[in-house]
Amino acid sequence: MRVLHTSDWHLGRSLHRVSMLDAQAAFVARLVAVVRERAVDAVVVSGDVYDRAVPPLAAVELFDDALHRLADLGVPTVMISGNHDSARRLGVGAGLIDRAGIHLRTDPAGCSTPVLLPDAHGDVAFYGLPYLEPALVRDEFEVERGGHEDVLGAAMDRVRADLAGRPDGTRSVVLAHAFVTGGAVSDSERDITVGGVASVPAGVFDGVDYVALGHLHGSQVISERVRYSGSPLAYSFSEADHRKSMWLIELGPAGELTTAERIDCPVPRPLARVRGTLDELLDAPELARHEQSWIEATLTDALRPDEPMGRLTERFPHTLSLVFDPDRAPEDPDVSYARRLAGRDDQQIAEDFVTHVRGVGPDAGEREVLREAFDAVRTGGAAEGTAREVAR
């Protein structure tokens, strides 16, 4: 059986205020084409279909279009909710949608009830474990205390018990949305730490033939049978070096992985991180390859240059993020600005802050404005003129 594993669509998400909806639509088109052209038998989507619990209408319409196109192909699709999704909203109409071959699994209580899909060698049981927030599902799994490992372990105990009662030779696929130990994180995943622990060991999933993971945005292999597909698009500059893809997995007659192939997703525009002084970034010939990329620029100028974004966009018109990180000698006290706050009064901290962000300290007039402002706050009588000066 050929299974196409994807996750973390995050429909409705933007990248630094740039809408990704067209890119997400291109991904859906690519997904449908792969299903058709590669004779895929089942599609699995391991959570975070949407980027937030109440997605924008355009994202809902794209999801609706994706479901119709997959249903028209007659290829079964199994989906679970992730930590970004509203399980209740995503699961509305699940019973009816089941009849079209789209199987939404958003209720933790149903994690041991598989979707059974047959092929020439018998049934493959697909178990959908939606994102399990420990505080919300402890009663369901009779776990009085504990975190992700405890509730996922209890859910997998139910899966293994159900699988043990099925005919010999029944193969198994588990969909789960979790942070598994050994996975590499990026900046665009929402933290799911509970009690100081976010990750669960891969051994939690022992006993099944393939585990289709979601949550982490980089495609990665935890073990031969435990994999993340990653997100189909880059949603932060920490993913600039990711190869965005889906896994095309083929399960053999005994549940062995006969193939595991990465299928590339469309790239709307490459991402690049560049670093240097403003003049270096504007003049460096080796950066010509990034001129049409989405850019995160880190400026290392000792003093903040005038109109840096406007000047950068003349060469890099798709600059989305500008970071200031001045190069300073290790002995420069401003390198460890945060350490310098201890034991200093408000006036000193404010003056240090001006120095930190601007590169030079306040002059005598600016120091007097700061002093008047602090005095006004302390006495509760901030004058309008002083407020205007501080704002300026």
Automatic annotation (TrEMBL):
Its GO biological process annotations read: DNA recombination; DNA replication
Pfam families from the entry?
Metallophos, SbcD_C
The molecular function terms of the Gene Ontology recorded here are:
3'-5' exonuclease activity; endonuclease activity
The Calcineurin-like phosphoesterase domain covers 1-218
Stored Gene3D superfamilies? 3.60.21.10
User: Which residues are listed as membrane-spanning?
Assistant: none
Q: Where is the Nuclease SbcCD subunit D C-terminal domain?
A: 268-356
CDD domains from the xrefs?
A: MPP_Mre11_N
State the function annotated in the UniProt record: SbcCD cleaves DNA hairpin structures. These structures can inhibit DNA replication and are intermediates in certain DNA recombination reactions. The complex acts as a 3'->5' double strand exonuclease that can open hairpins. It also has a 5' single-strand endonuclease activity.
Q: What is this protein called?
A: Nuclease SbcCD subunit D
Q: Which species does this protein come from?
A: Streptomyces silvensis
What's the encoding gene here? sbcD
